[in-house]
Structures are given as C-alpha cells and as structure tokens.
Write a structure and sequence with these properties.
The chain is of the alpha/beta class and about 475 residues long. A hairpin with a 2-residue loop joins strand 10 and strand 11.
Length: about 475
C-alpha cells in the first residue's frame, strides 16, 4: 500500500469539473474531501482553436494546493497539462498504472517538443501576437514530470490523507484505468475512457462496484459503432494493392491504433487470406509504444509469442533518414504512419508522394474529426492542402470506421448494468453536448438512475450512503 502521510479532519465530498465537461478534451476533475485535494486527470485541450486557447488561460486552481494527481491513462487530453502544473508549483505524487507511466515518458516530452516547434514556427513566420511566441511548456519541462510518477497497481489501495484511491482496468488503451476514490464512507468512481468489450487487444473494462456516484465518460453516448468485419474489409483493400502493385498508406495514431492495425494485418496474413506483404511503420513514437506491449503483457490479450509474430515481422523506422528512404518503397506494400487524421507528422510526406497515384490506397482507420485533413478526405475531398500547396487525391480512399477504442452507447449501458449494484447517481463527462445528453436520456429511461451532465466549472456534492 502506498501512503502519503497526511491526516486532516473529515469534510464534505465534492467534485469540481475543471475540464472535460461539455467537450471530449481537457479532462480535469478536482476532488475535495477531508481537507485533501486530489485532481483526477490533468489533460490538455486539443482540437478546435477555441478549445486550444483554454490551455493559455490562468489555471483554475493553484497547483501547489494539490495533494496528489491521479491519471486514468496517458492520452494527452488526460495528461498533457501535467508539465504546466509542475512548472507552476505542483510538487506531489502523480499516481498512474505502470504502462501509463511508461507512455507518459513517451507522450509528454513529445508534446513539449511540439510546443517548442510551434512557437519557433510562429516566430519565424511572424504571425504571433506575442514577441517572441513562447511554448506552453518545453520538452525539458515535460521531462521534469516523469520522476514524480508513482506506479499504482490495480486493486492496491493508495492512501492520501483521508482519501483512499484504487485503480481498476478500463480497456481503451494500454494501462488505462478507472479510479475509485473513497473517503468519509463515500465512494466515487471515475470511469476514465472505457474500452470496447470486443477489442482484440485490450480486455474489456472491469465492471463497476457499488458507489455513491459514478463520473462517466460519454464520448460515443449518441451512437453505436457499425458492425463491420474488419479483417475482411482490410483484406479487400490488400487484394487491390496486390492486383495493382500499389502501396496502402494507413494514417494511424501511435498509441493503440497503429498496434491494432498490425494485429489485423497479421491475422489476415496468418489466415492465408492474403499473402504476407511488406509492412512498414514510420513513426518513432509508434515504435516506442509498440515495445511496451512486450513489457506489459498482463495489460493486454496478446501472448509473448503473439507479440513476437505480430511486431517482429514489421520494419519500424525512427530516424529521418530511414523515413526518407521509404520513398523508394514500391507496392504491393503497407505503410503505417502518424498522425491518424493527417493533422501533421511524417504521414504527410508519404501522402504527398502516394495520393496522386491511382494504384495506391489511402486507408482511413477510425473516426475522422471534421476540420481535419482526414475528415475532409473521408467526406470526398479531391485535393488536400499541406506544406503550402495542394495535393491531388487520385488514389482510392477507403474508410474503416469500426476501429474506435471507445465504448459506444450500447457498450456504455452494458458496462453500467454489469456491476453488482447500480450507482447512487451518474454524472456524465468527456462528451460533446449531444452525445452526453443522448446518453443521459437513455440512462434515465432504461436504468431509472438519477443522471446529470457536468457543466464546465460546476460542482457536485456526494451524499453519504444510508
């Protein structure tokens, strides 16, 4: 048991929603009870400009006033403000599962590097209002977070003064967890992002135990993922590549999506449905993340032999020179590169080379947000703007929209039902307005539970169990 030695007088159990309310990004939930202040998640705002600007606003609390931070998982919209909190005075422990801590060691420095590159570009281009433009935080400042991470083993209680916290597996990505907080005979569960029950790599999220309140994500609260045979859909794309000697370019997120694509490719090749093709992964981050699957085998469904087979026959590239040499790759072949919605990264260079050729295929894997290049391509765009010009799209564009790592509406409801007892109340977070309200209505109608949608800056007080 990990103990932070601090004892204070018991007080009311309240939760303030400082991010991740009314949107799917910037998750931050402040728990105050027994004189203890604990932050669940510390996410950066991503996506639309009006959301990203919130990252520059004054922090909604003094970081030094926090006793601890608890991370549900490593995605930047849940962890990306940690460097800023440390920069402005937080000095406590940051509790996370072992895979989440390792992923933060990859993702946070990368986020700092991107902040520095964006500031440098703004200064060179002269479009910033600030002279000079400064990064939100640097790569070095991000690295200062890493020694503060403390491993939280699933099911092992962590004492923080009057508070006890425990982590349980949530699926979604490697190391993701739901977090239960108990104090003064009250219990609250923060679901974090919940994975799918049918995910081939991550096990399903553990059922919730009885709690006074459940703070639950609602990302896909208004939709059900399409029933698609992923293997067959992908095999048909590969058939065309073989027939036309084309390259299949797959933009994929480095955490989770790239590894899922490698799993499905291996499954097709092993079945004999398509002869094994050369597969390249051009992403230093995806390369580092993939190595963690061997280190944290207890967090996913794959055996060591599976990992060796699935990842061992792939050519991973790290250096810029290795990436440039991939311009010589001829089809049939598969090339996976980040980012997943064509918003930036090495994939843009490959897209510029491959998209104008009709024999090639651009395979979009998973949801493509409106406003991104991936979203425009999914909507039928015949050219995309990048690097100061327009790239014609003559390659065939395919879209497999059934590869989400998030539970959909039916899976969220099933997870709620799977617990031994229903929660006293439900508060919905991490969802756009329509998704959250649609799920609220379904929970009220189907499960007869008191449920509300969190408001940004709002607060709820949790009553004691009778």
């Amino acid at each position: 048991m990990t103990i932070v030695s601090r004892t204070r007088r018991a007080a009311a159990f309240s939760i303030r929603f400082l991010g991740g309310a009314g949107t799917v990004t910037g998750s931050k939930f402040l728990v105050e009870t027994g004189g203890v202040r604990v932050l669940v998640d510390c996410g950066l705002y991503q996506g639309l400009k009006q959301l990203r600007l919130r990252n520059w606003a004054r922090l909604p609390l003094e970081p030094s006033s926090l006793d601890a931070i608890l991370l549900t998982h490593a995605h930047i919209d849940h962890s990306g403000q940690l460097p800023l909190f440390v920069k402005q005075g937080f000095r406590g422990h940051i509790y996370a599962t072992a895979p989440t801590a390792d992923l933060c060691g990859i993702l946070l420095p990368d986020s700092g590097r991107i902040q520095e590159e964006d500031a440098d570009f703004a200064n060179r281009a002269g479009f910033s209002k600030h002279k000079p433009a400064l990064p939100l935080y640097t790569e070095e400042e991000a690295r200062r977070v890493l020694p503060m991470l403390v491993e939280a083993a699933p099911g092992e209680p962590i004492r923080i003064g009057a508070v006890t916290a425990s982590f349980r597996r949530a699926g979604h990505i490697l190391g993701a967890a739901s977090i239960e907080i108990e104090a003064a005979r009250r219990r609250v569960l923060f679901s974090g992002d919940l994975g799918r029950s049918i995910d081939p790599i991550c096990p399903p999220p553990e059922p919730p135990e009885q709690v006074d309140a459940l703070v639950m994500e609602s990302t896909y609260g208004d939709r059900v993922h399409p029933a698609v045979d992923v293997a067959e859909s992908l095999a048909q794309v590969l058939d065309r590549a073989v027939a036309e000697s084309g390259v299949v370019l797959i933009p994929a997120f480095a955490v989770g999506r790239a590894q899922a694509m490698l799993y499905w490719l291996d499954r097709i090749f092993e079945s004999g449905r398509v002869a094994r093709l050369p597969v390249f992964v051009d992403s230093p981050m995806a390369t580092s993340v993939t190595e963690l699957y061997r280190r944290h085998g207890q967090w996913h469904r794959l055996s060591r032999a599976d990992c060796d087979r699935i990842f061992g026959r792939v050519r991973f590239t790290r250096s810029v020179d290795e990436s440039k040499r991939l311009a010589a790759v001829q089809g049939p072949a598969v090339l996976i590169s980040a980012s997943g919605m064509l918003t930036g990264g090495r994939v843009l260079h490959h897209f510029k080379r491959l998209a104008p050729e009709p024999a090639n295929t651009i395979l979009l894997a998973g949801f493509q947000a409106p406003g991104t290049r991936g979203g425009a391509l999914a909507a039928g765009a015949k050219e995309l703007k990048m690097h100061g010009g327009y790239v014609p799209v003559r390659a065939k564009v395919e879209h497999i929209d059934a590869l989400s790592a998030h539970a959909d509406q039916s899976e969220l409801l099933s997870w709620l039902r799977s617990g031994a007892a229903m929660p006293g109340r439900v508060v919905l977070v991490h969802g756009e307005a329509v998704a959250a309200d649609t799920l609220r209505r379904r929970i009220e109608e189907d499960l007869r539970l008191p449920v509300s949608v969190a408001e940004s800056g709002g607060r709820v007080t949790v009553g004691s169990r009778r």
